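Board work, copied verbatim: YhbX/YhjW/YijP/YjdB family protein
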Amino acid sequence: MLNNVLQTTAAESARLITPGYVLWIVCLGVLPALAYIAVKVKYRVWYKELLTRLVLAAVSFCARWASRCCNIRITPRFSATINQ
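↓ predict structure ↓
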């Protein structure tokens, strides 16, 4: 594979750059990058940010665990359905 890359000429590479490819790169690469740069995030003090993230992670975990517990109680032979 490396040999193919090293033997590629400029003419071969130029044929790959089509208007559709350029549009694809602009729409899915350049525009999202510009949007990412434009957004300014204001962070709180590190310990408040950490506490917020830990609380959100705990709530998410509890919600997922509650859903899993309901499935275990409702579905007979739940372990058999997971292992299939």
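The chain has a mean pLDDT of 84.
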